[in-house]
Specification:
- It is globular and about 65 Å long.
- By secondary structure, the chain is α/β, with parallel strands linked by helices.
- The strands form two sheets. Strands 3-2-1-4-7-5-8 form a seven-stranded mixed β-sheet, with helices on both faces.
- It is built from eight helices and nine strands.
- Helix 5 packs parallel to helix 8 and helix 7 runs parallel beside helix 8.
């Protein structure tokens, strides 16, 4: 089956035509699903126009800015209906360069989830100021330590999933919405025993437009990690109790 590339958008009209063109030029016959949150700058209308001449472009229109997490889920559900597999998620601002998509998909030969990682040998960041680099590093360290995540880049949204991975997760039950959705999805994948791999990427600061990350998103990510840590500890406690009960029988 051909792969799907899922791209949530909000005010990305300066980037989306070039990005879609580069993805469709890759030798992987990918379909692109753009999930647009009613962008005032006409991003959704641009995608509609492009889809008229390119059947591999699909637009999912939502009535308002409803969050990154639900946008990913909407794209995944649309990929299910189109019978596409695997599914790649990425940003629309060229911080995730399309040239890395083939290596993400190739990595699924040995892994169930592949992450485009800034924090493995060969990876890195380009154009980001020191403050944002520090925030990113702290967020990853915090998530990895608290949740015992094996991946080095826990907050990267540049990922490839095998379809069975996503089908094993109750997407309606995913609580997080914004960027913390990425942490929760990784936690759910690992806790279900799916193999997680990483391939190095150079993360580039956006070419046009403005960043969507706010202080509120940082607070939400912190809350998500603490909530999942509590769940992890509770599950571990229940497992010990069940083992003790079994041993006494």
């Amino acid at each position: 089956m051909p792969p799907a590339v899922i791209i949530p958008t909000y005010n990305e009209s300066d980037n989306i035509p070039s990005l879609l063109g580069q993805i469709l030029a890759l030798p992987i016959d990918a379909h692109v699903i753009v999930v647009d949150d009613n962008s005032p700058d006409g991003t959704g209308q641009l995608v509609d126009e492009m889809s008229k001449t390119e059947p591999r472009i699909h637009a999912v229109h939502r009535p308002a800015k409803l969050g990154l997490g639900t946008a990913h889920i909407a794209g995944m559900r649309h990929a299910f209906t189109l019978n596409l597999d695997p599914m790649v998620s990425m940003d629309a601002d060229f911080s995730h360069h399309p040239r890395y998509i083939p290596s993400l998909i190739a990595g699924l030969a040995k892994s169930d989830v592949m992450i485009g990682s800034r924090y493995v040998p060969g990876g890195g960041m380009q154009g980001r100021d020191t403050k944002l680099r520090f925030v990113s590093w702290v967020a990853n360290f915090f998530a990895r330590t608290m949740l015992n995540l094996k991946a080095h880049d826990c907050t990267s949204g540049f990922r490839a999933y095998r379809r069975p991975v996503l089908e094993s997760i109750d997407l309606d039950a995913v609580f997080s919405n914004g960027y913390s959705f990425l942490i929760e999805m990784l936690y759910l994948c690992q806790s279900r025993g799916w193999r997680v791999g990483e391939t190095p990427i150079i993360y580039e600061d956006r070419r046009a437009g403005t960043s969507k990350i706010s202080r509120a998103e940082i607070y939400k990510a912190t809350y998500t990690v603490m909530r999942l840590t509590y769940r992890r500890m509770r599950n571990a406690k229940n497992l010990l109790i069940n083992r003790a009960d079994t041993a006494t029988k």
